[in-house]
Amino acid sequence: MKKLALAALAATAVLATPAAAEIKIGSTLAVTGPASFLGDPEKKTLEMLVKETNANGGVNGEKIELVVYDDGADPNKARTFATRLLEEDEVVAVIGGTSTGATMAMVPLFEQAEVPFISLAGAVAIIDPVKEWVFKTPHTDRMACQKIFEHMKGEGITKIGMISGTGGFGQSMRQQCLDVVGDYGIEVVADETYGPKDSDMTPQLTNIKNTDGIQAVVNPGFGQGPAIVTRNYRQVGLDVPLYQSHGVASKSFIELAGDAANGVRLPAAALLVADKLPDDDPQKPVVTAYKTAYEDATGEPVSTFGGHAYDAYHMLIDAIERAGSADPAAIRDELEKTSGFMGTAGLVTMSPEDHLGLDLTAFRMLEIKDGDWTLIEE
User: What keywords are assigned to this protein (predicted)?
Assistant: First the structure.
């Protein structure tokens, strides 16, 4: 009866596959809502990989069951679903947290329950300071700032403007950029923000345009905001380089921004330029295989966000295999020992002091040209 009652809650649960599985993995993602362009490919990737695992006999002879809830990037919903995953679904590990806000709302629950949690969100605060049961796969916002400023320094840029979203990721990345910008001999001479529901950022961008000495602009943010910023940027006639975060690393951004996206620079994973990587690049086999599998399975272009789920799933399955057990504590210990794992984000080596395991070389600097991603030669 209890399982029947849970089935009645399927309006909020996206999928549970297959019913008779033995190792239960949970996920709560922004499948719908303003962050759906991140969460939807994450969900589709996890479903694709679970199907593949089970078709190949499962893990240590046991099948995988995936339980997915759609939190719409709402921290309150995410916390509710995290509680359900722990108390009712009794999962042994969780992959999820599309957004920083949703992730941070769930972290205390997984820490208290002692169940490993691999976040798919960007903020460095998720894993710094290190939390015993929390890991993550995307490059951090701090790393994005560092990669952008490293490129700017090479271009001789010394004075910039910033326009940041006020959501969890935008706020965090803005602060991270302010913390490290001085290390690169760069000064922020204009600092503007916009809200998640704002539909016109021309006043803030006009202020930036009218600030003397601006040589480039950085936009920390994700969702629809950066696309609006990009369109407004062109409309007000700003003619200096515009740098976006890895939070826009999806074809959806280019579609929303239209022609205005051309010329935008950003740090991103190699996945977006899989076909443009040299043949001797050690990451090329991984990103091309995932890109082909995902696009064949969904008929949709690959995005780095689905790649975050790809990496999380493979690291989790590897940890379960090495542990020889689905015990949460054993899985956690093996996740922390992940070493030399080549994923879509880059080469991952974790430790008790590092629950991300990526360094700055995992980022590639890209520029959008003719509506597509291109590698910037470094």
Answer: Amino-acid transport, Signal, Transport
Asked if residues 132 and 112 have their Cβ atoms less than 8 Å apart, the reply is: no
Residues 314 and 320: their CA atoms lie apart, in Å, by 10
Specify the pTM.
Answer: 0.87
261 and 349 assigned to the same domain: no
- What is the domain-level CATH number for residue 299? 3.40.50.2300
Q: Are residues 76 and 135 in the same domain?
A: yes
Render pLDDT for 270-323 as a digit per residue (tens, 0 to 9).
999 999 999 999 999 999 999 999 999 999 999 899 999 999 999 999 999 999
Cα dihedral 252, 139, 100, 67 in deg (nearest 10) = 80
The one-letter code for the residue type at 57 is G
User: In the 8-state DSSP scheme, what is residue 281?
Assistant: -
* Number of structural domains the chain divides into: 2
DSSP 124: G
Same domain for 239 and 333?
A: no
Among 89, 108, 119, smallest CA distance to 14 is for 89
Cis peptide before 196 (omega within 30 of 0): no
Please state, in angstroms and as integers, the Cα–Cα distance from residue 132 to each residue in 113, 128, 242, following that order.
11, 11, 38
Nearest to 314 by CA among 3, 22, 17, 59: 59
Tell me how far apart the alpha carbons of residues 153 and 360 are, in angstroms, rounded to a whole number.
15
**Are 29 and 78 in contact, with CB atoms under 8 Å apart?**
no
Q: What residue has token string 């740090």?
A: 267
Q: Are 150 and 121 in contact (CB under 8 A)?
A: no
Answer yes or no: do 154 and 122 share one domain. no
User: Is the bond preceding residue 129 a cis peptide, omega within 30 degrees?
Assistant: yes
CB atoms within 10 A of CB 319: 24
In a shared domain, residues 173 and 253: yes
| Average pLDDT, rounded, for the chain | 93
Describe the strand order of the beta sheet including 187-194 as a list of residue ranges.
187-194, 159-165, 216-219, 242-244, 265-268, 364-369, 372-375
Range of the domain at 250: 141-268
Question: Does residue 146 sit within a domain?
Answer: yes
Work out the number of other CB atoms within 10 angstroms of the CB of residue 366.
Answer: 24
Q: Locate all alpha helices (DSSP H) within 155-224, ordered by sequence.
A: 168-180, 202-209
Among residues 238, 268, 298, which one ends one of the domains?
268
23 and 120, same structural domain? yes
Euclidean distance between CA atoms 140 and 82, whole angstroms: 23
